[in-house]
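Example S7 (structure tokens).
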């Protein structure tokens, strides 16, 4: 492995971000000697690569989900038969007659085509759901997707079976750990490797690793529950939460303008969230079918609230992990940063693996366990799973490279730009975003997103200007003190 690749791994003043990447402590670029300065083309390529990897993980997760549904074959015949047998709908207490199954656009083409054909002489079998249940589902251990029917509305959703997030992220953290062990051996031999295995140091950094591991799993779960655009925008709530944590824990006052930017971002996120309640049908319950309208709204709220819960947990864990990491990393500046990272990653890998049992399952069962599907820890893995792991690991390494070559402002701006492109643009073109600009909900959603992006830009640039002003004030104070000493002498 080349020396240049190993240099990317070494960033002397950085901390992990929510995906296991890095964020700079300060707003200054990490300088190099004049002879080692990379060309502008190399820096531009690095910045674009960092932008792509930072924004692509959520997009690739949607590619994986679409591929799981398209991967339809003989193993899914039982699910096909169940849907077709019950396509006239299921009896429900709130309706006079069952609602025929519909909304199969996201299902395998053969199944969607059969549902749209005329309903002719077929003997239908009715499965009586419990009165408390709003949805019934059918799955097969060999099939890559399962059918979920919302009984009150008859809406059919073909939901992909997904890999266990903790397994994938544990593997990714292990690969990163091997890279850092290799780098430490490259620069310091076995003496530096020994520093990575001191028990007290491993225990000290275990809390940070556990927080980053849980935050990464929560991030993947949020990406699985939300569209890429919604996840990217809701994740900007970290801009609101992290400064408040710094204000409380480090007792560092925040400028008034920063609070204004935080309030703008908060308002944008609230507007975006309100739009997902579907304003066009908010008062449909007053009309002819109040129970049906209430059920439709309840389903939509339930799906988005699950994603919001994971985003909130991810932002909380990532914020706490960043704060604790800065405290620990700055306490021992004599220790190489790559050794510190090598002490964090083992506990991160272990925490990711333990989330398989510690995080409640889909039906909030606890303790959880691996699903009864072929493959064990690697169930439902495909080529796209490896692509997701590769991009998440690439985000970790390229975040370190961007933090080394640029200042933290450049990295933060890349994160905001990534919401627009590739996230929103690609997600909208692929049909993953529920955005209809002609509706009031769509217009409010777009407005909220624009407000969040503008507020994030203002926050990042305002923070940079405030840092420059503070440094200038410190320099003026230092020069004034020096001039006073000269006058006394």
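Recovered sequence:
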């Amino acid at each position: 492995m080349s020396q240049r690749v190993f240099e990317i791994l070494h960033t002397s003043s950085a901390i992990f971000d929510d995906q296991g990447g890095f964020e700079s402590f300060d707003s200054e670029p990490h300088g190099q000697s004049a002879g080692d300065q990379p060309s502008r083309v190399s820096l531009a390529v690095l910045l674009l690569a960092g932008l792509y990897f930072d924004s692509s993980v959520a997009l690739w997760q949607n590619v994986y989900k679409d591929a799981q549904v398209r991967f339809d074959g003989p193993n899914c015949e039982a699910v096909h038969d169940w849907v077709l047998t019950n396509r006239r709908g299921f009896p429900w207490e709130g309706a006079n007659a069952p609602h025929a199954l519909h909304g199969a656009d996201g299902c395998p083409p053969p199944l969607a085509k059969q549902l749209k054909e005329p309903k002719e002489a077929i003997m239908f079998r009715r499965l009586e759901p419990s009165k408390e249940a709003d949805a019934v589902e059918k799955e097969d251990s060999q099939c890559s997707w399962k059918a979920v029917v919302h009984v009150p509305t008859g809406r059919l959703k073909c939901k992909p079976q997904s890999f266990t997030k903790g397994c994938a992220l544990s593997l990714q953290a292990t690969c990163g750990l091997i890279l850092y062990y290799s780098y430490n051996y490259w620069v310091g031999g076995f003496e530096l490797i020994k520093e990575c295995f001191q028990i007290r140091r491993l225990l000290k950094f275990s809390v940070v690793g556990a927080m980053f591991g849980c935050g990464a799993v929560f991030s993947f779960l949020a990406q699985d529950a939300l569209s890429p655009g919604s996840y990217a925008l809701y994740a900007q709530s970290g801009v609101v939460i992290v400064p408040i944590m710094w204000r409380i824990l480090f007792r560092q006052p925040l400028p008034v303008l920063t609070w204004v930017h935080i309030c703008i971002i908060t308002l944008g996120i609230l507007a975006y969230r309100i739009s997902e309640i579907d304003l066009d049908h908010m008062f449909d319950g007053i009309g002819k079918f109040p129970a049906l309208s209430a059920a439709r709204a309840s389903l939509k709220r339930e799906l988005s609230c699950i994603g919001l819960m994971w985003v909130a947990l991810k932002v909380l864990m990532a914020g706490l992990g960043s704060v604790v990491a800065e405290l620990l990393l700055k306490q021992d500046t004599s220790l190489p940063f790559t050794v510190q990272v090598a002490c964090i990653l083992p506990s991160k890998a272990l925490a990711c693996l333990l989330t398989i049992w510690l995080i409640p399952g889909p039906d909030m069962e606890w303790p959880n366990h691996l699903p009864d599907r072929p493959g064990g820890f690697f169930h439902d893995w495909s080529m796209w799973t490896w692509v997701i792991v590769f991009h998440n690991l690439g985000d970790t390494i390229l975040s370190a490279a961007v933090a080394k070559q640029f200042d933290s402002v450049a990295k933060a701006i890349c994160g905001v730009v990534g919401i627009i492109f590739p996230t929103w643009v690609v997600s909208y073109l692929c049909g993953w975003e529920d955005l209809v600009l002609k509706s009031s909900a769509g217009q409010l959603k777009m407005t909220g997103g624009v407000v969040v992006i503008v507020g994030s830009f203002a926050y990042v640039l305002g923070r940079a200007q405030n840092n420059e002003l503070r440094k200038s004030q410190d320099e003026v104070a230092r020069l004034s003190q020096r001039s006073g000493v000269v006058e006394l002498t």
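Notes on this example. The first helix runs from residue 3 to 9.
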